[in-house]
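With this grant's support, we have paired protein sequences with backbone structure tokens. One protein thus recorded is set out beneath this paragraph:

_____
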Amino acid sequence: MEILTLYFIALIGTVLWFINAETASVYYGSQLGWNPAFVGLVCALGQCTTFALLYLGGARLLGRWKKLGGKVERLRERYGEHLENRFLLLTAISGVVGLPPLVALSSIAAGFRVPPSHLLVVAALFRWIRFTTLASVGPQIFAWF
């Protein structure tokens, strides 16, 4: 049951800032003694579920908002074949650091013709690194407070 709680914290916390998956990963790793790699996996899966839904919703959004769709189209024409690699590099950086928000990147990825499988694998891997690290260093973080 606690696994589902952590999963849903990560799922919902992706879009609702006051439900924080990062804090939950520190708590589950340090206070509850869960394996940090497992905490990272559960949180990454929760967030990637939301990223997949945002990817699908973003494709529809770009179709409706012609102005934004036009800007995405111009960028795609300008950068052409290198766009997917650069987009995935930005996704990797965002997966660890959190900037730019993966919520925004997931929403516009379809417009740049980044396959959802590529986006989600990169996001999951680097979110796993992020959450595993937070769950691992949790005791040191709690020692400061």
